[in-house]
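Technical appendix A lists one of the benchmark inputs used to test multi-chain prediction within the project. The record comprises two sequence entries:
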Amino acid sequence: MSTAEATSDPNALHGLEKDSSAGWRGPASKRIVTGYGFWIFILSDMIMFAAFFATYAVLHGQTADGPSGHDLFDLRNVAIETALLLASSFTCGLASIAADERSKVWFQLAMAVTCILGLGFLALEGREFADLVARGAGPTRSAFLSAFFTLVGCHGLHVSAGILWLLTMMAQVFAKGFRADIQRRILCFALFWHALDIIWVAVFTVVYLLGSAK
Amino acid sequence: MSHASDHTRIGPEVAPGDEQADSASVGQRIVVYLIGLGLAIILTATSFFVADTDLVWQPSIPVALVVLAIAQMGVHLVFFLHITTGPDNANNVLALAFGVLVVLILMSGSLWIMSNLNHNMMPMDQIMQMQR
């Protein structure tokens, strides 16, 4: 922190807004503060997931004579889920470009594709969970399966919340246009959606690929 | 309160998720996402291939999978979240570094403590005998 920043009058923000050529030593713009705050939230969310990952790693051998990951996981299904989520991350990036360019048509189109891909992911995951429960491998079967359903289900809940947020953003852009506050929400949504994809990378590696090894 | 110019005023810092320069054209920005997507697809495909192949030395597979996953997380951070090492990104990188530190302590600490407890625990049949 520079001394100029520390000693400057807090009201100087108004002067800075007019005089952008003088450089930026005052408070950061609201978009940066909002994005940074949401970035902190995402990192805390990742720490919560780390706790679930640690739980899964500790318990993945505790199958209580029930089925292990090798018996249960269908890697083809996981690969399709991964492809859907990765593609949705890409279209989410296209949506943020469209939002910056203030192109409503492209924004709604990219968000709609993101939504469909996300719903496809959730459908496959829901089918997998229903299949496991039907085969008697529900969360109550063993400590391993409790940890599995907690970790993967928590990610699925995040994706569900992300889709609700996505639909909200589509409606807000439709009704209110690309206002500055809406743009900030789109920035935060894009951060959230990309972060979910990062967590999924850890999920398919730790849970499915390492978990299905003998 | 002017609302039109809020997002174009990117000063010495960048919000996480924002790209460095507003000057990049739409085509250039799409190319960045395409590169990220391509790298992510390659790394994911390699992970799934390595997971069940007999072509590599078996004990190396878990290590390879973890390395591939960390590489892919890096690709996502750089190409999708636009976290870079530039001076305008210092705050974002520092927050990320602290998050990674906490995650590492949490994961390795949990695994270490639990395996140690597991190692020192009396075998189950002996516990059963003591309860009699």
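Residues 112 and 118 of chain B are 10 Å apart (CA to CA). Chain B touches chain A through 53 residues (CB under 8 Å). Comparable benchmark entries are summarised in Table A2.
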